[in-house]
Amino acid sequence: MTAIVFDLDGTLVDSFDDISAAFCRSFHVIGADPPSAEAVRTQIGKPLRDMYAPWAPADAIDTLVAEYRRDYAERCADRTRPYPGIVDLLERLRGRGHALAVATTKTTWMARTVMERLDLVDRVDHVQGTDGFPHKPAPDVIAHALAGVGRPGAWMIGDAVTDIAAGRAAGLRTCAVTWGVHSAQDLRAAGPDAIASSVKDLHAVLLAE
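The structure assignment produced for this chain is given below.
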């Protein structure tokens, strides 16, 4: 059987509140006002340094990133939850013999921490973060995830246009989900092989395998 690769934030888990809260709180370390939560939403899915770039001077970004990571590691599951239906989907896919992997812009340690606190880490076969290699839309994190499960890939599932580009670059079929950070219009323009507007739709796409 093949492997199915999932993005994490905005795809498997609704983590926007915890990410945006930690991001905004971090600005206290440089004595600056934070952006609005909605402005932060437009940046989620990017590397942290890129997320801070619109609102912070370059020489302050390392300080902000360090504070975010300290804060978020403590409170990453305060309000984050799996989207309804996701746990059932993962169980059904594994029951059919698919290997399941996560490929995320988070570091592996941080991704595993979130998933452990949500009782998700044992529901997939491999958790792969972006550790010292290019971020999506480069395909590197997907390649590492597939190496981690030792299976050829079938699908990349994500809520951002970078997920779709990375999946295509990795040679996988791609499915965009519309409940995350990017609009359905932007996701359609990215040219995925399928679009799911609900977890039920995603069930239909993947369980047809």
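Interim note for the steering committee: The mean pLDDT is 96. Strands lie at 3-6, 13-14, 81-82, 99-103, 126-128, 153-158, 173-177, 194-196.
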